[in-house]
Automatic annotation (TrEMBL):
CDD domains: CAP_ED. Residues 36-119 form the Cyclic nucleotide-binding domain. This is Cyclic nucleotide-binding domain-containing protein. InterPro entries: cNMP-bd_dom (IPR000595), cNMP-bd_dom_sf (IPR018490), Env_Response_Regulators (IPR050397), HTH_CRP (IPR012318), RmlC-like_jellyroll (IPR014710), WH_DNA-bd_sf (IPR036390).
Length: 233
């Protein structure tokens, strides 16, 4: 199945893809496989062998890990259009986390054979893979600093802002609605659902957002951004 016009528009709004040299964009378009996943179906599990890189075209994917006691940790929710799965390409190690569809999801997949051929014949593509990974590393450092220096409200604002921006993946923010439960937000912030609920209600009273069932509508992006990037003195 080939990429549709809507898919190409999604790709154009992905910062990493939009900045790739044209030959690499064409390579992705030519080698892309379109895959469909149902709710709670795995794209891959922690420990799996590298089988390529992925991007979310429609739907959403939960990136995280479940320990031996069944406790789940969520690192991120990948939405259109966020790339994932490239870390194992770089370190040649098994997958470090699970990738699970949280609703009906349509995925762009570049198989490992195609990627290995590309990096072997066009070594400069490694630079672009490094850019993709360093983008996530930058976000990870930002969140680590947030944990050490900010209140739970500020951390919540930062997480909502990152999700809205597609974790730095979006050239433009095209929508202001986040499809996410309070339980999932609590897992991301490693706090209780009750704490998240209290802080969300406080932000709602400030006019920053509007709450609905498993959905958060951002009403004031500027105020959310200010909260997210304010550090404790």
């Amino acid at each position: 199945m080939t990429l549709q016009m809507d898919d190409l528009q999604h790709l154009a709004n992905n910062r990493w893809y939009s900045e790739l040299p044209l030959p690499f964009q064409q390579f992705i378009q030519e080698h892309a496989l379109i895959q469909h996943y149902q709710k709670e179906q795995a794209i891959f599990y922690s420990g799996d062998t590298f089988d390529g890189i992925y991007a979310v075209l429609n739907g959403a994917v939960r990136l995280g890990y479940v320990d031996i006691e069944g406790t789940e940790s969520i690192a991120a929710i990948a939405e259109p259009i966020m790339w994932f799965g490239e870390i194992s390409l770089i370190d040649q190690q098994p997958r470090s986390h699970d990738a699970i569809a949280i609703q009906k999801t349509r995925i762009l997949h570049i198989p490992s054979a195609a990627i290995h051929t590309l990096v072997t014949t066009q070594s400069q593509f490694w630079f672009h893979i490094a850019q993709l990974t360093s983008q996530k590393l930058r976000i990870a450092f930002l969140e680590l600093i947030s944990i050490q220096t900010q209140t739970i409200r500020q951390r919540l604002a930062l997480r909502l802002m990152l999700i809205l921006q597609g974790y730095g993946n979006h050239v433009l923010i095209e929508k202001n609605v986040i499809q996410l439960s309070q339980e999932q937000l609590a897992q991301m912030l490693t706090c209780s659902r009750q704490t998240v609920n209290q802080e969300l209600q406080a932000l709602e009273k400030l006019g920053v957002l509007n709450l609905a069932f498993k959905k958060i509508e951002i009403l004031d992006q500027e105020q959310l951004h200010r909260l997210a990037h304010t550090r404790q003195s």
